[in-house]
Amino acid sequence: MTDLKSRLLIAALAATTALTAAPALAEGTLTVAQRQDPANWDPVDTFLVAWGSVASNIYDGLVRRDENLDLQPGLAESWEVLDEGMRIRFKLREGVQFHNGEPFNAEAVKYTFDRLLGEVGGAGPQQSNYTTIYRVEVVDATTVDFHMAQPDPVILTKLSGYGAMIVPPQYIEENGQEHFDMNPVGTGPFKFVSYEQGARIELEANAEYFEGAPELHGLVFRFIREDATRLAELQSGGVDLVTDVAFSAVPTIEAADNAGIVAVAGPSIYSLALKTKDAVTEDVRVRRALNMAVDKQALIDAFLAGRGSPIASLQGELSFGHDPELEGYPFDPQQAMALLEEAGVAPGTEMTIDYRAGNSTFNEVAQALTGFFAAVGLNVGLNPVEDGVFLNEIVPQGRTNEMYQFSWGGWTFDFDNTAYLTYHEGEKWNPYGTSDEMNALLDEQRQSPDQELREEILQKVAQLAHEEAYHIPLYNEETVYAVADRVEGFVPAPDKRLRLTDVSVAE
Amino acid sequence: MQPARGIAPRAGTSPPEADLPILSFILKRVIQAGFVLVAVTLFVSFAIRLTGDPAVMMLRESANVTPEDLARIREGLGLNRPFLVQYGDFIGGLLTGELGNSFFRGAIAPLISGALGATLLLALTSLAVSLLISVPLGIYAATHRGSFGDQLVRVLSLAGLSFPNFWLGIMLVLIFSVTLRWLPPSGFTGPQSLIMPAVTIGVILTSTNLRIVRTTMLDVLSSQFIMVARAKGLSQTAVIYKHALRNSSIALVTYLGLQFGSLMGGLVVVELVFNWPGMGTLAIEAIAQRDYPILQTVISILAVLIVAVNLLVDLTYMLLDPRIRLE
Amino acid sequence: MTGFKNFEFVAGLVLIVLIGGAVALSGLLFPDGGRAMDLTARLTAPFTGWNHPLGTDPLGRDILARVVVGGRVSFFVGIVSALGAVVIGTVVGLLAGYYRGPWDMFLMRFADIQLALPFILLAMTVIAIIGPGLDRIIVLMIVAQWVQYARLIRGSVLSLRQAEFVQAAQSYGLPDRKILFGHILPNAMGPLVILATLNVANNILLESSLTFLGLGIDPLVPSWGGMLADGRNYIQTAPWVTIFPGLAIMLTVLGLNLLGDWLRDRLDPLGATK
């Protein structure tokens, strides 16, 4: 921060001197612009994709997930699932060091998970994702056993991200938690250099990285909140890669002479949840009619620049549990009107959509949805709600209107994550309840280590949800990056983490 | 006005008769300022605790949140303590400079010092630019009253007040960064980063300052003592610089004091457009995350600043024009 | 000088009558309220056909209709919040100036507190508590602005209280209410009208800022601020989405400022509103 202060001072003094154009980038440095500053680099303190995109370059987990979402060895060379899923044994990589020179070993793994599952982790949001781990036991310097409280089919995937990133015990003990929050140290391909809150974090290549040094010398992330400003930075050459690109900006970048679009299938799905209690939507015919009133492809073409696909359940094609056989309700306004009439819903009936304010794309989608509903005779209003209120008071308390936004982007790509949360009794996103059958199915697949059986059950869950029309599933959006032409080798992963080891920049 | 009790002017420095009213005036203003600050901080830290639960914000994207998770986080953040205890902590921190920790972002003090520096730099640059433009133009307009130039100045200053400032900012970025690629569109990468945000804020300041300079100059120029001065043979330049400008500066200083609060408010929007790492950007993030410690500190420090500026204005006022004293 | 004054008056009046007239008649001109969407005609460029003379927005809605209808919100917010602030400010100012004492204390201290809070941050915090909406924005603006009027009126009352005609009225035993509203208020009207005119202009700008920050109103109701915010992502590919509402704001505010300036010279020779 003193750095920023002194720079501001210099700027004040120099404000009247000659002006130069935007600064040229140093050789081999890539600058990324993203919307959000996670503001804290400790793996146990965050749930933000904005953290993942930066920190995937600083930390490693025991396992790593590649661009095809397959699990690969990370800091563990191999692993075995034992005792019917109650114990997992990891064989660790040897000779790896943290950026501060501290050795990586079994003690570091134990420390990481003791910390995550103990008091430090308890004050943050990550602990709850890993409570199926009972304890971690050091077998020898390069072997650890994870003892499970219950079998967890998704645990290996979870070990590849966020809270499960391995942290350096001595460094944290010597410098304290607060220092670690702002000065991260891991084993990853890039080392932390400096961090200016709200502005930027700078990293440099870790020449000793166990999979070989990255192609870049330096990696800078800048935090720029406004969509239009991030884009302007790209166009004026201030940054090389922009994340969270607004779909409305896609044509602009496609037309730009120094940049292009790179898109990849993503985890995020958008839908409208329907209120199944004490509302006109309690009648399943009404819910089906609402589904038939919406032309999903038209929404995708108009507001997603075509970068998305319609969905029939609350998951995309990459998700474990996706059923290609399941077809969504057709776009059929005639049939929708017939169903509404059958259900005794008079033309001009008023309904309201609650949705999260702040996402410019969904704001347009919501407005267009009211147009589709108007075409089948419904008078639908909009109620944009600020995130905090929406997630705090409206949804979990069951105070929604007839329709409310449900969008989710579980990075595990396992339908369990989304389905449990939206259909199981007592969950945050299921304020109005589903059915006993649904609860039983969801519990059953959680207990089962048999992945084939799980997939079958999850597809059944999707089928059941489709028949009951609990939601209007809308679309699965692609993740869109705007990339300067001088960037080479950028292949994004679908989980929005941004591991930039193979990327290079041309001069 | 009663002389202040307990504050005696130090013997031998100056005659007590002359100092007492000023001292008690200052003391009264300081007490008022203190009252205002207590009310403001109390209001702010109470109001922000009604905006929602930071624990829920922290876990908002988590799949399985139990009430125990929430309670554990609230406990960790110190939110289970009574409001007045939390408020007392906050005020104690403000007074001692130990600003404590944000809910999400580590220690507050370095955050604030960086953001405050950035905001003040932007505010003072805009102010300097606007004075450099508005004072000469205002003098010109006043001394060439009714001329084409005067009318042009007046229409331009009215037009300058009619822009939505964020719109102006976006337009500038479009022209100077995207199309011409002359200036960096955002953040702080060097002195050239200051230009567009300072111009955006400067346009409004300049327009208002211009009008104030022009009007007060006109008032003074047509007043009796100037007539007398002219009759005595004082040159036009001397009249303008010795008398008229002095009076204009009194009006300007007062205006700036009164408008300092809305200048800070206007900065919020402009900082957002230019991703300027200042207090506004900090506050907007804090509101979104329900980061009580940061938000209450930012608003309170801005309030302290505004109150201090107004206090200074009142005192400057007395210095610039000894006739205006003690209301 | 008089030439310029006439120019100010005529230009201001023409702007306000034209824009205000169109807005007032918007119900007749555009019975659909600018809401009809057509996704197949989205982002039509302006001046390319009679259907959509000023083009269409990202949802294929007619921009001309939305600009004209959208003026309702701007004028409504601007005028209602200014009126509310005038009424409250006048009453408090009269009481404070005439009776002094606790009223005066309350007013001046409240003014100090209100002056010390950056309005936009305060508005964002309050909206986070009570939720967004047109009514809340109006209330917030009234809360933020009534003090200006109260101080203005208080000042006028303080100087008028000593005036001969007030002293005379008091000696006739006229009730305070009659003195305040029958004698003092009419004499303080000029500055009040000027300040109100300028504040209507200011409030229109403020409403657009708040909407831009996402604190605004029902997205289905067209408003100038909302159109600017929604159009900002299209500024490079479809600038007309933002240019026309931006122009509407500018011209309206300019018109009000011109009129306010003209009024100032007519009604406030003493310069109380400077």
TrEMBL record, chain C:
GO terms for biological process: peptide transport; protein transport; transmembrane transport. The chain crosses the membrane at residues 7-30, 75-98, 110-131, 192-217, 237-259. Its main location: membrane. Keywords: Cell membrane, Membrane, Peptide transport, Protein transport, Transmembrane, Transmembrane helix, Transport. GO terms for cellular component: plasma membrane. It is found in: Cell membrane. Residues 71-260 form the ABC transmembrane type-1 domain. CDD domains: TM_PBP2. InterPro entries: BP-dependent_transpt_permease (IPR050366), MetI-like (IPR000515), MetI-like_sf (IPR035906). The keyword RNA-binding does not apply. It is a multi-pass membrane protein. It holds the Pfam family BPD_transp_1. SUPFAM superfamilies: MetI-like. The keyword Transmembrane applies. PANTHER family: D,D-DIPEPTIDE TRANSPORT SYSTEM PERMEASE PROTEIN DDPC-RELATED, OLIGOPEPTIDE TRANSPORT SYSTEM PERMEASE PROTEIN APPC. Belongs to the binding-protein-dependent transport system permease family. This is Glutathione transport system permease protein GsiD.
